[in-house]
Design a protein that fits this description.
Blueprint (H helix, E strand, L loop, with lengths): L2 H27 L9 H4 L11 H13 L2 H9 L4 H28 L6 H8 L2 H32 L4 H19 L5 H18 L10 E2 L2 E2 H18 L6 H26 L19 H8 L7 H9 L10 H26 L4 H7 L7 H17 L3 H37 L8 H20 L6 H4 L3 H22 L5 H28 L2 H36 L1
Helix pairs in contact: 1-5, 1-14, 3-11, 3-14, 3-17, 4-14, 4-16, 5-13, 5-14, 5-20, 6-7, 6-20, 7-10, 7-17, 7-18, 7-20, 7-22, 8-9, 8-11, 9-11, 10-17, 10-18, 11-14, 11-16, 11-17, 12-21, 13-20, 14-16, 16-17, 17-18, 20-21, 20-22, 21-22
Amino acid sequence: MSAIVLLILGLGGMAAGYFLYSRFIATKIYRLDPDFKTPAHEYEDGVDFVPTNRFILWGHHFTSVAGAAPIVGPAIAVIWGWLPAFLWVVLGTIFFAGVHDFGAIWASVRNKAKSVGALTGDVVGKRARSIFMIVIFLVLLMVNAVFAVVIAGLMMNFSTAVVPVWGAILVALIIGQLIYRRILSLPVVSVLGVIALYVLIFIGPAVPVQMPAEVGALSGNAVWILILFGYAAIASLLPVWVLLQPRDYINGLQLFIGLIVLYGSILLLNPTLVAPAINPDVPAGTPSLIPLLFVTIACGAISGFHGLVSSGTTSKQLNKETDARFVGYFGAVGEGMLALAAILAATAGFATFADWQAMYTAFGQGGVNAFVEGGAYMIHNGLGLNEVTAATLLTVMAALFAGTTMDTGLRLQRYIFQEWGDIYNQPWMKKNAPATLLAVGSCLLLAFGAGGADGTGGMIIWPLFGTTNQLLAGLTLLVITVMLVRLRRPMWYTLVPLCFLLVMTIAALLIQLRAFFEQGNYFLLFLDIVVLVAAILVAMECASALKRSRAEMAEQQE
């Protein structure tokens, strides 16, 4: 089958979702009000609460939620065949991710930009909030610790990407000043920023930077992890307009250009999908398609981490409530487009079926490597671009998005500690510096405490990320559903996705529980039980709140 057919169907479906379905959700369900005073204006402080142009905010939101996950998940899941991955990405983007991300922004904006964890206390109850905050903390801990490992690995394996990745930070700092000081218009700054980024990408292969394999008692990989957390700590303390917004905005533009290059090479090359639609001969040890597909592909279909970004940083920068549709739903569409590109690169970016099989020898294989190798193959053969440069372009794309997610993730983790300081009346925890130190310290404790001198401890608990992340998405939808019931609005558009997610996630947790027990991995077994119990308790609390809200409505009608 031609990859072009899949490309047209996927992009067409997502476009219809944005122009038709999201408009219906905005007007009939969330009922956005252009005159509503958003928290960005009400609590403007120039640091976290900053009214922001919707295009710049979209860039921040999209690149923060994207990261490497919409590349890794789909590029692993095609081991079951391209059809299940394609359907879940397209339908998940339209009916799950868009509604979830859009709804989390709306819910937070309507409640003083509170995070979804803190919002749970107001909408559901204090017990649910306490449990929810633990789940959120675990997700952020996994994301920050693991994305540091992913970026460090890219820096070690692709030395040509080091200069473009770190040079992008300088470009972002300059762009931030040009926009904030109104020195140049946004279109001019956008063009100059993109040109600067691509100049760096072409410079990268000429100036490779290789970290030594050993630096004192630490590996080169561990040194990169320490550098990344040092950078992320500083970035999370800076006002959002200085680095976070411009970095994310310019990366968003860079991604779309990268997607145009990748999609353009597909149109010119017209490659064939060498992978089967349904793979009947999966490697030994590969788990069942259902329910594992729905937790293997999280970002790109629906992800609980998106709710944290939506209610953590995005809601504090929303200029008008009506911007939530463009920022939230179209942000999900952008990520769906990236996931679609990952599927195509991982299934049509190989010369033969045997080459594809050689990449997918076991479950968990593929990922970023399949995306980079497959994408570089198509760009080289479709556009004639040098393979090293093509691979550098895609590596930089993956590293920049992982980096922006890590920036935002650490800021969100700081917010969690500050909210705990508020909940438990600890004034020192509400200050930026101590909360940031706690956030970084917890990540480093996991990275080096569990992973030793190599700093890869985050990978130990990563097998639980998919289920914990999707659980968080389901619980976020529960909070939104309760709000809709209290406002006497249709709830089925959020209730159906959340029921599906909770069923699939709890089933996946139970399957993993058995696997961890059989493997004798009692640490992950314990964490799996904690997450499973948390899921059941919060679901029960939300069901109780939903029942109470419906009962109150019935009484009022009488």
